[in-house]
Amino acid sequence: MKKAKAFSDEYLHLQQSFIDKQIEWNQKLQIEINLADNISANQPLIHEMSWKADADQLLQCFHETLALFDSVSGVKDDVDRLGKAATTGNVVKWVQTGIMQDSGALSELAKEIGVEKWLFNFAIENVARSVLQVIARSEQEALSKIELFGACPCCSEPPRLAEINDAGKKALVCPRCHHQWVVKKTACAYCGSEDHTKMTFIQNTEGSHEQVQVCENCYNYTKIIDTKRNLAQVSPTLLDLQSIHLDYIAADFLEEQQSKIH
Q1: DSSP annotation string for 117-131
Q2: Is 116 helix (H, G, I), strand (E, B) or coil?
Q3: What separation in angstroms does the CA of 50 have from each of 28, 33, 36, 47, 197?
Q4: Distance of alpha carbon 103 from the chain centroid
Q5: How many CA atoms lie within 13 A of 20 on its CB side?
Q6: Separation of alpha carbons 19 and 238, rounded Å
Q7: pLDDT (mean) for 96-114
Q8: C-alpha pair distances (Å), 53 with each of 26, 95, 148
Q9: For the segment 68-86, what is each residue's pLDDT rounded down to a tens digit?
Q10: C-alpha atoms less than 13 angstroms from C-alpha of 108 in its C-beta half-sphere
Q11: Which residues contact 42 (CB under 8 A, 6 or more apart)?
């Protein structure tokens, strides 16, 4: 399948600016993490801990994130309204809600403030990712004890992206918190099946270093990128966006397979 250009250069440049801001703040944020006494091996870490950030830092991070919307047309009024509603207490509450991906609560908050839901969610998610990236980097020992299928051990994001690393091993990579964990090459990241008769690996003909692993046991898929061939280091968040053509390949394959069943 031909590799189509899913996003414009302008859109990717804008996304890169948000990613750069996440990375900048994941180096600045001072976060106190308190883990549960007995961490469950089958629950994401965010459900087994509490965190506390410097509220003034979090507020500054939020305002700097909002400033990146200056180049986006049609959102100025909502950005101004959101900026005025942003107090230290509100931002802490918003980010806590965003980290837990409580879509109902986020919708209510956006409605209360009077801003578009997508804008509110996007702004909060970008700040939440900075916090999550600090947590993932700081709690490697705790994360190594979690054995979880179908979700990131840190933040519960679906395991849709994997890299073949310099050691030749397959590592699932979370586009949200940037946590990485090594898994068996043939195992499904969602259901754990190792039945090779249920696995299909689809090579992207436009990029020999890219493939999709589709599991016909649970009908989920993971994009696999051989990053050994990439000279430049790419953020997992951007890599997820740049590989969206693989999502289309997987969706087409799954639709075809499921049509054979019905």
Answers
A1: HHHHHHHHHHHHHHH
A2: coil
A3: 19, 6, 8, 8, 42
A4: 16
A5: 8
A6: 8
A7: 98
A8: 12, 10, 27
A9: 999 899 999 999 999 999 9
A10: 7
A11: 146, 147, 148
- d(C-alpha 148, C-alpha 153), whole Å: 6
Tokens of 75: 């959102």
How is 61-98 classified by DSSP, letter by letter? HHHHHHHGGGGSTT-HHHHHHHHHH--HHHHHHHHHHH
* Edge-to-edge order in the sheet of strand 161-164: 180-183, 170-173, 161-164, 220-226, 210-215, 199-203
Strand partners, 32: 52
Query: What is the widest separation between alpha-carbon atoms in the chain?
Result: 56
Report whether pLDDT(172) > 60: yes
Q: Specify whether the CB–CB gap between 221 and 210 falls below 8 A.
A: no
Selection from 93, 78, 176 nearest residue 106 by Cα? 93
d(CA 165, CA 37): 33
Q: How far is residue 224 from each of residues 15, 86, 181, 202, 247, measured CA to CA in Å? A: 21, 39, 14, 10, 11
How does DSSP classify residue 43?
S
pTM above 0.90, yes or no: yes
Q: Per residue in 199-215, pLDDT tens?
A: 999 998 766 789 999 99
Q: How many CB atoms are closer than 10 A to CB 36?
A: 13
